Amino acid sequence: MIELYYWPTPNGHKITLFLEEAGVPYTIKPVDISAGEQFDPAFLAFSPNNRMPAIIDRAPSDGGEAVSVFESGAILLYLAEKTDKFLPADVRGRASVTEWLFWQMGGLGPMAGQNHHFGTYAPEKIPYAIDRYVNETNRLYGVLDRRLAGREFIAGDYSIADMACYPWIVPHERQRQNLDDFPNLKRWFRAIAERPATVRAYAHAESYKSRPTITEESRKILFGQTARNTAR
Ligand SMILES: N[C@@H](CCC(=O)N[C@@H](CS)C(=O)NCC(=O)O)C(=O)O
Fold first, then answer.
1. To the nearest 10°, the Cα dihedral for 123, 168, 138, 122?
2. What is the residue with the minimal CA distance to atom 11 of ligand 1?
3. C-beta neighbour count of 9 within 10 angstroms
4. What is the pLDDT of residues 95-131, one digit of tens each?
5. Whether this model's pTM surpasses 0.90
6. Using CA positions, which residue lies closest to atom 8 of ligand 1?
7. Which positions of the chain have pLDDT values less than 70?
8. What is the 52 CA–ligand 1 centroid distance (Å)?
9. How far is the CA of 9 from the centre of ligand 1 (A)?
C-alpha cells in the first residue's frame, strides 16, 4: 500500500497517473498547499522541500522499514522500479525514458510553472516575464512535437516519461499554446487523455477542487517564500 501525499496539480497528477495505470493500491493523503499543509512538521520530515507530491511505501521490496520519496521524478522512478512497469529494463530503452523524464523535470515543468505564475497568478502583469515563459514553453512544445513525429509515445511503450509530461500539457490554453500548431503532440495528448487510467486519475482531482487554490490568503502562503519564512 502506497500513501500518496497529493494535491491536484500537474505534479500531483503524475503520480496518480502511474498508480492507476499500474494498478498499485494506494491511499491519498491530501496536502492542501493553499492552506499551508506543506509546512506541517510531520510532512516536512519526509518532504523537506515543502512541496507535494511525496509517497511513503509501507511495503518496500526489500521487506525493510517504510521508504519515503519526494520529488515527482524520483517517485516515478521508484514506483517503476518497484513494480517493474513503465520503465524498460534494457540499457537503451531505459536511457531514452530517463532522458525525457529529466527533460520534463528540468525543462517543461519549471518553464510551464513560471508561465502559470507570471501569466495567471502574478498580481502585476510583466510583459517581459510573460513573453519569456510563453516563448520557452512554446519552444519546449516544439521539441516534444518533433520527438513524437512517427512515435506513439515519447520513448518506446507508454512510460513514466509520458506520465511526467502529460499533466503539464493539460493546461495548454492557460500556457497560451495552441495544440493545432503541434499535430504530433496533439495526437499523443488525445490518446493519453482517453486512457481509462488517466480518466480515473483525473477523477480524484475533482474531490479536492471545492475551493480555489489561489486566494489572497493562499497567495501569501505560496508566493514570496524565503529560507527564513519557511524554516520550521
Ligand atoms: N520538483 C517538484 C515540484 C513540486 C511542486 O512544485 N509542488 C507544488 C505544487 S505543483 C507545491 O507543493 N507547492 C507548495 C508550495 O509552493 O509551498 C516535483 O516535481 O515534485
1. 0
2. 51
3. 19
4. 999 999 999 999 999 999 999 999 999 999 999 999 9
5. yes
6. 51
7. 210-213
8. 5
9. 8
